[in-house]
Amino acid sequence: TFSKSIDDASSVGGSGGGVAQNYLDLQAERGLSAFDVRHRLLLSHTYEFPFGERHRYLNRGGGLARILGDWQVSGNAQLQSGVPYTARVLGNVSNNTGIGAYGSQRADATGVPAGLPAS
What is the mean pLDDT of residues 12-40? Predict the structure, then answer.
């Protein structure tokens, strides 16, 4: 499956209760969902052993056919491209809610390396 989930209300950890960082600019809240997984492959299989009635081996009845006959093994696997992750800053460092350290803020990610100047 190829997908991309975008919303404006995902919460970190899926527990709900997200608060807008700036209620005057709700478009800035739009971004990748907390549960966004881009690529997912699901595999499943079932194998029926060839023993017992209607099968190749032990098909004439008897105690051994009753014990070993009509067994199946099945399984599944899920492969996906990473785990959804949201970088965040704990506490409201900028105090933009006006009530002190409440909630969390998204990390300021610009893609620009944050190198320190040489001293």
Answer: 72
Instruction: Quote the strand ranges of 18-95, DSSP E.
Output: 31-32, 40-48, 72-80, 88-90
**Phi, psi (5° rounding) for residue 68?**
-95, -10
Measured distance CA(63)–CA(90) in Å, rounded: 66
Query: By CB neighbour count within 10 A (0-12 exposed, 13-18 middle, 19+ buried), where does 56 fall?
Result: exposed
Tell me what pLDDT residue 77 has: 95
Domains of the chain by residue range: 40-75
- C-alpha 48/C-alpha 53 separation (Å) is 12
Q: Are 12 and 88 in contact (CB under 8 A)?
A: yes
Contacts of 24 (CB under 8 A, 6+ apart): none
Mean pLDDT of 32-41: 82
pTM for the full predicted model: 0.47
Q: Which has more confidence, 10 or 56? A: 56
